[in-house]
Amino acid sequence: MGLLKVGKPLHWNDSLEHCHYIRRHGVLQFMANYRRLRHLANDRLFYGDEIEYALLKIDPVSKRVQLSLRGPEVMEGLRKQEQDMNAFRGCAWHQEYGSWMLEGTPSLPYGGYTMSLVSVEQNMRLRRGRLLSVLREDEIAPTLVTFPLMGVGDFVDPSAPPGGEASESEFVPDTCINPHPRFATLTGNIRRRRGSKVDIRVPLFKDVNTKEFEKEAAPDIHMDCMAFGMGCCCLQVTFQASDIEESRLLYDQLAVLAPIMMALTAATPVVKGRLAATDVRWNIISQSVDDRTPAERGEGESKPEPRMAGDGTRRQTKSRYDSISCYIHPGSKAYNDIACEIDEETEKMLYQEGVDEALSKHISHLFTRDPLVVFDGHVELDDDQSTDHFESIQSTNWQTVRWKPPPIPSNACSPHIGWRTEFRSMEVQMTDFENAAFTAFIVIVTRAILVFNLTLLCPLSLVDENMKRAHGVDSVRRSKFWFRKHILPDDTDDVMQQLCPQQGPKAESKSSFEEMTMDEIMNGKSCYFPGLVPLCYAYLEHIGCDENSFKRLDQYLKLIKDRATGELMTPATWMRSFVHAHKDYKMDSVVSETIAYDLVHACSDIGLGKRPCPELLGEVQIEPVLKEGHYETPLFGEKLGPEDRRGLLQKIMSRAAQCDGTFSAPSSAHMRRQSSGAVSGLDAVSRQGSIEIREHGGYVG
Fold it and tell me: Pairing relation of β-strands 321-322 and 398-399?
């Protein structure tokens, strides 16, 4: 999560004097990087996923469940066990905001072949199994968006009273925050810049006996700190594009899909021990990191502070965690129809550098925000050799999609990383099958858009309206979403008349956009819109997908097709039904401790393949995930004992030069070999490369 540095982060009052310097030099760093790398071209497709896990402690006797605050300890244990593993089968583990959380990614990105789409699920299962192997007997780690009892009573282990210097929360202890100093500082500085604690409000679900509705027309669930939002887990996918233009085009196209995919993956019906009148996490997180002053929010006046961006008084229509405010490809300009605040000084600098209008607007919009974490002694940097100040702003603009320039290589052997686009809106699913299905789907859709030269572009005002609708209860079945009717960018009246005569010429249509059901968006409508799932099948046929890969991909696409029709439930709908059917539920919107215990246990068992769930998965059976067998390195020939095998492999792998890692092209310079044992303690080259990819904002960053 974001840019992690070792050092002492500054209190907001002390960091204020550096804010303008960091903003200005962040732009200079971007321009230096842009100047150096804008001509990169012909990069191959790499992609990767991120999944976040929550560690929970369970007590079967008392039927009690709590957050287990062992995330950093578990992460270090997992990292240690990864050291001797083959990177092609490996996992990488990373810190997250919560001390009960950790993030898992593949140790290397997936390549651009259909067989790699099937290997996504295999790696997700490997991650789940390896995590399972280091848990205590009284711990589970389901893939849930939120912990249902977050902020309710004594919900953490070890026990701790609510509040602390960072959050000042009435409900959540600061021990929930990852001990890395960045996270507590981020929490405190958001509150200090804002001038008050964050104020999170989620509408309460009205049931027969929900007593709050006796006193209020629209009661809400109140939360007051960053942990409620940044403690949410999600599924993200990052793509390496062929070049800068393709990365920008993908950014715009994926922005349109963000609310659609969020609705389709909805998995957040329970918040702070109550049933919410929403099904997704996004607005919770948006409010949890909203550092805007009252003047910036349009809710009152604020005293100007010249050291802050816009003096702390310039109107900001959105939180820094929100949907995008502008498209970034030059061809998308006509669809920018919402407010997009910019920093004029930044825009002027970019224009002078020759950066085009669309990209200048995007960067200038990002730099209307202040840096939230400044590290002591890490302010004056070489702008040609560092992008830290750029990333300090970029990484704390959490939008539905993120455009990611290549990092500066740390050394001559650093892996090549190109222009990337990150898709950020999807909610994490209970099973690896579902998470892999949505990862594969979004990869295939992007390929279809590029290969068939299609466009999904809509006015951003309609995209924002879709974001609102995606929050609704069971929006997949109950809501309609604005979507583009004609996805061929160059279709003519004659073409449309031939393909769909009953619709009339395209020019006669009142609009190129209309409200569609999720079924219509995914599976097609009439003769003029093919549907995204059929487009995926068309692409797989076009590239001649191999039969073995297609069998699993077909199951993925069927899951999405059936969920869009309503034949299969979203996780949110399933959880809501589970709560309603529980013997302890009193129809009062309260998710009690026993209900929460049974709910998370059921979700864990579904993810591990212990509990069938046809309402979610149809006929698909999840193969059980076990604790054992996730760290063996297979060898052909005579079998060696595990200890001997590991020693032999280390000895063999130490003979490689650093630059001969995964994806390297051997050359005379790189074929130098060191004598066996000369590089004692050297990690596997391929593994080292994967770490560099991650630490420097690589494919799966």
Answer: parallel
